[in-house]
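Structure first, sequence second, as always.
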């Protein structure tokens, strides 16, 4: 049973964030991320996905800030 208790700040964002996670994993060369057992991946591989997601979200926020 998953222990993830993180909740998105915006209701309904879960599906978007999951899709975004799979797209980022694919960009990083981790194929079939959706079907793979995340416990079988190394901490480094899982960290790359999360870290790259954060980097892209910050980049998006910076580009869309009012000047």
């Amino acid at each position: 049973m998953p222990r993830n208790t993180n909740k998105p700040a915006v209701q309904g964002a879960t599906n978007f964030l999951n899709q975004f996670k799979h797209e980022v994993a694919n960009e990083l060369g981790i194929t079939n991320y959706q079907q793979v057992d995340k416990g079988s991946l190394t901490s480094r591989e899982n960290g790359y996905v999360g870290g790259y997601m954060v980097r892209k979200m910050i980049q998006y926020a910076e580009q869309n800030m009012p000047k």
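Margin note: Residues 13-63 form one domain.
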